[in-house]
Amino acid sequence: MSLKIRLARGGSKKRPYYRIVVADSRFARDGRFIEKIGAYNPLLGKDDDKRIVLDLEKAKAWIAKGAQPTDRVARFLGAAGVVKWEHGNNPKKAVPGEKAKEREAEKAEKAEAARIAAETPAPEPEAPAEEAPAEAEAEEETTSE
Question: What is the helix, strand, coil percentage profile of the chain, to 5?
Answer without folding.
Answer: 40, 20, 40
